[in-house]
Every structure is written in C-alpha cells, then in structure tokens.
C-alpha cells in the first residue's frame, strides 16, 4: 500500500495497544504536529487509525507571579518590614512600614488588601501591627506559586482560584489528540506500506518549471478539524462610531476636530458654566499637572465671557455674581464633554467665522471622574452636534433625533425636561433597553442660551445642540446590559468576536 510520507510515519509510530499523542508522534518522526494531525485524520477516514480527543487543563504563571517568586509576595514583604520595626510589640506608622518594605505603586495596595486577610496583623487609623505567630513561610499562595513553578500542579482549587483572581496564574484549556492503530491498520502494516512521492502544496517553482504536471498531489480532508485562529477585527464600538459618522454626514453635517486636553475656558466658561459649579471641582474633572495652563486665549473673547458671567447679556441680563478668575479659566484638564469643540467652532477660533446655516458634529472621547457602573465609565465616546440657523425650535431638535435614531432601528424615544447652565429649553433623551425594558438615558440637549452665544459672536441665529452617548446607543442596538462588557479592561473578548454587526 502506498501512502503519503506523513501517513506512513503515523502508522509506523502508532500502537494498537497504547494511544500515542500527536505531539509524541511528531517528536518521534520529525514532522510538524499540524502535519501529523492532518495525516491522522486522513488515516482515520480510511479506517486505519482511531483518533481520540481529550481536554487538558493547564496553569501558567504570569510575569507578576514570577516577580513575586523572586521578591516575595507584597503582603509578606510588608509583614517582614513591620516585624523589623517591632510592630509585633506596638503599632507603628503605616508609612514607616511601607518605606521599610520597599513597596511602591500598585504593590502597596495589593499588600494592604491582603495583609489582614491572611492574619499577618491589623491596619487601623494609619497604623499597622504584626502578629508574631504568623508564619509567612507557610503562606498558601506563596507555597502554591513555588509548586507551580516546579511543575507540580497539585494545588487545591480554592488557592488556585485566589491566584487566578489576583492575576498571578492563567488557567488554560487545550485539546489533546491521541492516535491508536485499528485492526485494519495493523493488517496494513503487516502487508507492507511504503511512502508515495506526493506533493502537499503547489509552489511557484512547480508552476514555473512545469513539474506540477508530473507530480502526485496529496488529497486534502476539508472536513478535518483545524486550529481556531482569532484574527483581529475592528472593535464593535469603532464600527458603530463610523456608522454614526456616515449617518450624520448623510444628514448634511461636517465633522469637528479639536484637543482632548483643553483650557477650562473652552470646556466650561464659554458654556456659561459658573466657576463655582460643583462639576468644575477637582472631584469631577481630571486636571493636568504639567503643563497646568494654556499659553494663549483670545483676549477680547475672554473679556466678553467674563462680562457675561459677571453681568449677564442684554438689558435684562443678570450674571452669576460669583467669583470669576482668568487663571482658573486658563487651567488645563481632560475635556469632560466635546462641547469644548463646539465653543471653539462657534467662536470662529477653529475655522474662522461661520455664517448660518451650519451643521457640525464630532464622535470623540471625553473623560469624567465618575463612579464605574454598568452605564458609566471614566472615559467614553460622546456624539456631539449642533445646528446654527434662524428660528430653530425644540420641534426641530426632536425631529433631528427622530431621524438620526431611526437609522439604527430606534423609534421609541422619550424626552424629559432638564436644566443646563448653557441651554434653555433643555431636555434629556431616553430609549428603551431591548432586553430589560428599562428606560436608558442616551443624551442631553437644548437650545444654546443667549448668555453663551453672544460672547462667542453668534447674534443673528439660534443654535440647537446635543451630546449623546455612543456606548448607550450600542446598548440599545445590541442589548448589552453593561458598558464594561464592550469597553475597557474587563470587556468580554468572546462577546466582541461573536457579535454580528448591525446596520
């Protein structure tokens, strides 16, 4: 019987008594494992071998775990430092213990979160104690890391789960295939098999020389299992952002561009946001440390904006009568909304003076010091837009939303009156989540106030504007219940790979 070389190698190496793994056969025959796998499936189809599959669990140490093997677990290092400072006799300042341990950065937080849990001592009111009876040499997690490093996988499940939650191990799972000779395979070997000269791949040399006419090509088993390859693809959030851009351009809008780090003047002051507004404190914004302030601001515009804040606009205007400081206006921060782009464009600073009618939009990241939850992130994408024209009304604004969201199959928008310092009237938009039935806030909008527009030089037109959440649009389209599943360090990669793109 003539067979391809790889198939002969499998038959001659395999046994009828003991199953041989693909890797073992590959090592014994100097063939690649994938070549042996293909040959084994071909032989199985002919009834000469049986291919068995089993799942094998594995554990791999991370780089952080290897570092701890060399330096010690952070909580153990903190305990040893506390002992050196006699914290087993009386409490010592935690700062002294941390300094003695040599820990810094995230390692400090890790040490503090595990110290008391493992019974090494207590931490209270900035002081630390050490339990003299604690035994760091028998620390179960340190012991388990050392065992895994030696190749000993006999670690109890609870400890393994703890190491996994700390990111010190990666739990792996792979399919191991083994080959066993069948009776027909044994018979074929006894009758004799020899390697046939065959070609498994068509090459440029075979084509140019003409040898392809005379060679025998190996048959391909198109039904054989192949290794799964997770190729890269465009993130679904980026796909949706591009779709939003296409829709808005189709509605006649032009795209805005501008800095992610900007002066508070453009981010808030130009929006008629008082400088003592709670949202402008360091608790809600990410201020820059270096550089701290912008180099240049248009002096005449600064004067007009300051006057609007202090005195209002028009004969009946009444400003905030609150402190206004140009140094604060110059302070740099990560933008909390992309309306900073709108103020730059409306003032003429970005692209020159604009005459109505105008339509502009952006789909860009913004940054807020929010609490993380299923609908809030520290950074997210905002769909900013505005229209400048004469005699605009709330009906025009609602009609724009109805047309925009209909492009994504969303037709059940609801509106609620709202207050913004920079728009009047103002309202929020809500859509119904397709899975939970909850109303999800998807944006904020309104007609820009005269106190905002007049200093920017917009006097003979109305401007309606909005800021919509791209991530929440994604939730309404696909039914995601947690933004963190698709965006950030905890995102579900399998969900992103398998989600079908919708338009």
TrEMBL record:
GO terms for cellular component: cytoplasm. GO terms for molecular function: ATP binding; magnesium ion binding; phenylalanine-tRNA ligase activity; tRNA binding. Residues 244-498 form the Aminoacyl-transfer RNA synthetases class-II family profile domain. Belongs to the class-II aminoacyl-tRNA synthetase family. Phe-tRNA synthetase alpha subunit type 2 subfamily. This is Phenylalanine--tRNA ligase alpha subunit. It comes from the Archaea. CDD domains: PheRS_alpha_core. Keywords: Aminoacyl-tRNA synthetase, ATP-binding, Cytoplasm, Ligase, Magnesium, Metal-binding, Nucleotide-binding, Protein biosynthesis. L-phenylalanine binds at residues 339, 382-384, 422, 448. It catalyses: tRNA(Phe) + L-phenylalanine + ATP = L-phenylalanyl-tRNA(Phe) + AMP + diphosphate + H(+). InterPro entries: aa-tRNA-synth_II, aa-tRNA-synth_II/BPL/LPL, Phe-tRNA-synth_IIc_asu, Phe_tRNA_ligase_alpha_bac/arc, Phenylalanyl-tRNA_Synthase, WH-like_DNA-bd_sf, WH_DNA-bd_sf. Its cofactor is Mg(2+). Gene3D superfamilies: Bira Bifunctional Protein, Domain 2, Winged helix-like DNA-binding domain superfamily/Winged helix DNA-binding domain. It is found in: Cytoplasm. Its EC number is 6.1.1.20. Signal peptide: none annotated. The keyword Cytoplasm applies.
